[in-house]
Design goal:
14 helices; two-stranded antiparallel ribbon; about 425 residues; 2 strands; mainly alpha
């Protein structure tokens, strides 16, 4: 961890904070345009192409439109919490970037000041990111509760259960990185990946994290808090104008945050891709690492968009079963395996090639386990009660008059003289 953290002039810290804010806002505008263009390409549509070159100003036009819309507050809403909820959702999304490293130490242009391309760092920086991002779910839950709508409340409850479930799996996937790097500092984790990026020896953790980050950000196919087919619009059903735009901004910044965290922990952070650093000595110096870092995060953003344009939304019970029955147990078993492997490596009883084989076999087993078809329970045989089955054809159909008469025993009294006849 650099000795400059905590000892920099105030204007340097303020400059870096403003630059992070500007980059995240501009990156959000770009990602919205990028998602529309990619999904349009997948669906053989045109996509935004009118506002600005290639439609690049479409996101800005949408932001202006949201700002000029009428701001409504529903009658049944708890107004104070209703207004504070979107702020509580978007502020933690920005705070998480305080410990994300963009690059190495650089010299600020037109000055002699040397500073790392990172706002600050902590010995427990990764835990700080988990703590800050988990606060954002309070904004979603309070938005659903304060709206005075059943659909919004159900969306907020879904989001809270979803974040709790997948944050456990996400945190467990970090443990193996801590075991390899020997630290929780983001800058030191990047420095530990100088020779080998961690997604290679820790590929099972990487897969678990990628699945968990999609669930953590409420993105398709895990966008159950916003399921329009069930909940109209989910937790933000009763929001409009700038308050709705804040939820939108928080979602896209959280996408970039989890992508940046994946880049930092598993893909070498701001370091140049394989082969470039060997050919070009200055690839990891100056401001070039910022380009490598943003390029890696953009790859994860494309992965988010690809999932949205490809997979249908999961059922809620399937989604929760994936987290609790598969991801968490697999993470626990993999942590034990990594501890055993690290012990063998420290005693020079395991070489690098054998480790790659172990990681590859474990990854194949995990992927095969996740995609195994569920074992169907045998359906009980129908019992003939003599009554017509309204669901026999797959749809509820009322019985015909003849069927109703046959199923209902006659209660009319026997005519007089019947016995004599």
């Amino acid at each position: 961890m650099s000795e400059l953290f905590g000892n920099e002039p105030f204007w340097v810290v303020a400059l870096k904070a403003v630059l992070i804010f500007v980059v995240l806002v501009l990156y959000t505008l770009f990602n919205i345009w990028f998602e529309r263009r990619v999904v349009a390409r997948m669906q053989h549509r045109v996509g935004p192409n009118v506002h600005g070159p290639f439609g690049l100003l479409q996101s800005l036009a949408d932001g202006v439109k949201l700002a000029l819309k009428e701001d409504l507050v529903v009658t049944a809403a708890h107004k104070t919490v209703y207004i504070l909820a979107p702020i509580l959702a978007v502020v933690p999304a920005f705070l998480a970037w305080a410990v994300i490293p963009f690059g190495p130490e650089v010299t600020i242009p037109f000055t002699d000041t040397v500073t790392p391309l990172q706002l600050t760092d902590l010995p427990v920086a990764v835990l700080y990111i988990l703590a800050v991002t988990s606060i954002g779910v309070y904004g979603i839950v309070l938005a659903g509760w304060s709206s005075g709508s059943t659909y919004a409340l159900l969306g907020g409850l879904r989001s809270s259960a979803q974040v709790i479930s997948y944050e456990v799996a996400m945190g467990l996937s970090f443990v193996t990185v801590f075991l390899y790097a020997g630290t929780m500092s983001t800058s030191e984790i990047v420095a530990a990946q100088t020779d080998l990026w961690y997604f290679i020896p820790l590929f099972p953790s990487f897969v678990i994290y990628v699945i968990s980050m999609v669930g953590e950000t409420n993105r398709a196919p895990f966008d159950l808090p916003e399921a329009e087919g069930e909940l109209v619009g989910g937790f933000h059903t009763e929001y409009s104008s700038l308050k709705f735009a804040l939820f939108f901004l928080a979602e896209y910044i959280n996408m970039v945050t989890v992508s940046a965290l994946a880049t930092t922990l598993f893909l070498g952070g701001w370091r140049a891709p394989f082969g470039i650093a060997q050919v070009w000595e200055g690839a990891n110096e100056g401001f070039w690492p910022v380009l490598w870092f943003l390029g890696k995060t953009l790859g994860f953003i494309f992965f988010f968009i690809w999932l949205r344009g490809t997979l249908p939304r999961m059922r809620y019970d399937q989604f929760m079963a994936l987290g609790w029955r598969w991801l968490i147990p697999i993470s626990l078993v993999w942590i034990v395996a990594v501890v055993f492997i690290r012990k063998l490596q420290n005693e020079d009883m395991l070489d690098q090639q054998t480790l790659f084989w172990i990681a590859g076999i474990a990854s194949l087993v995990i992927i095969a386990t996740l995609f195994l078809p569920e074992r169907k329970r045998p359906e009980p045989e129908p019992v003939d009660t003599g009554e017509p089955d309204a669901f026999a054809g797959g749809y509820p159909v009322p019985p015909m008059p003849a069927q109703r008469d046959a199923a209902t025993p006659s209660t009319s009294p026997e005519p007089r003289g019947g016995a004599e006849r």
